[in-house]
Amino acid sequence: MQGWPYSVIVALEVGRGSWTAPLDAVRLAPGDNTANVTARQICDLMA
């Protein structure tokens, strides 16, 4: 069974913990270039 592909950006906790904070999630469309989607997410996050 296939799932829906997503590109997710999270912030990691400082130190030895395992907590994460989701910052952005984008559902990938068929044919999306994952590198381009990730680069766009990072640019949008930094803006």
From TrEMBL:
Highest taxon of the lineage: Bacteria
Organism: Actinokineospora guangxiensis
Protein name: Uncharacterized protein
